[in-house]
Amino acid sequence: MTTAYSLVIPIFNEEAIIPELWNRLGAVIPTLDGDTEVIFVNDGSYDSSLDILTQLAQQHPEIKVIALSRNFGHQCAIAAGIDHAQGQAVILMDGDLQDPPEAIPTFISHWQQGYHVVYAIRTKRKESLPKRLAFKTFYRLHHLLSGIDIPLDAGIFSLMDRKVILALRQMPERNKYISGLRAYAGFRQTGVIIERGHRYSGEPRVTILKLFKLAFDGIFAFSNIPLKLATYLGLVCATSSFILGIIGLYYKFILGRVFLSWAYGLTTTFFMGGIQLIFLGIIGEYIGRIYDEVKQRPYYIIADKINF
Fold first, then answer.
1. E strand or H helix at 88, and its extent?
2. Are 58 and 177 contained in the same domain?
3. How many folded domains does the chain comprise?
4. pLDDT tens, position by position, for the chain (308 residues)?
């Protein structure tokens, strides 16, 4: 029998949330107009999340569980679910209930109208002010730097047609940014405004440090503008230094005066040294990602699968 819908949900230490998550999913799934599978990807949880998922899978055959051998990260866990999804439409959502399962029928309605990708445009986020500002800054910076049209404020919560899923499976890069790859795939896409809810229990799993890593993955995977910026800034600095050098020679040999004191020279030296280190770091980020790709290691390893 053909599976109509696949839900892919990454789980990391969500033992307090999984029962409520399944209760809300269990209320939505019967209203859908086709067979549905729910794929939970346990991303190396060290609490009882896997035990709870195993018990649910034993009671509900539509639940499938992928247990990764360790914590590979949010994006890789989603990729594992995408690789195993059988549905004609695949819905991605986080497992902390900030993405409301009740929005799934709205996604499906737009998909049935002919859209291949339906993504949530998150509004009224409930995170702390610094984190909300970080998210807004990231989305706008990424939109500015990327060579493709990546929607603003659109995260993982989305529905993708099987055509898009098959396209994503052909993108085996190691440092994944699923939202960017989804935009890169193209096809007909539309956004739906969804109010971002509170986390149901516990502390958010996405720390500022993890947000920075995701931002780096998103920017360096879809843009070479930082490298071009290094070139342009280098040209500006070299030209400026040459002009200042000519002016300095004029002051010394024509006017017989010192152009700038040693303090200005020392400040300029430290400033230029900082600029060089920043751009060495940028180049290192690109080289590191090339290194990851060359090794060709799998971006996730499965320890066990249930109900597949």
1. none
2. yes
3. 2
4. 577 899 999 998 888 888 888 989 888 888 888 888 999 999 888 888 898 999 998 888 889 999 999 988 888 898 899 989 988 999 998 888 888 888 889 899 899 898 999 988 877 655 566 666 666 666 666 666 666 667 666 778 889 999 999 998 888 777 777 877 888 888 888 888 877 666 555 565 555 566 666 666 666 666 677 777 777 777 777 777 777 777 777 777 777 776 666 556 666 677 777 777 777 877 777 887 777 777 778 888 899 898 88
For the chain, give the number of residues: 308
Closest CA to 182 of 205, 163, 210: 163
Are residues 50 and 123 both part of a single domain? yes
- The DSSP-derived string for 283-299 is HHHHHHHHHHHHHT--S
Q: Which residues contact 248 (CB under 8 A, 6 or more apart)?
A: 259, 260
Q: Domain check: are 193 and 251 in the same one?
A: no
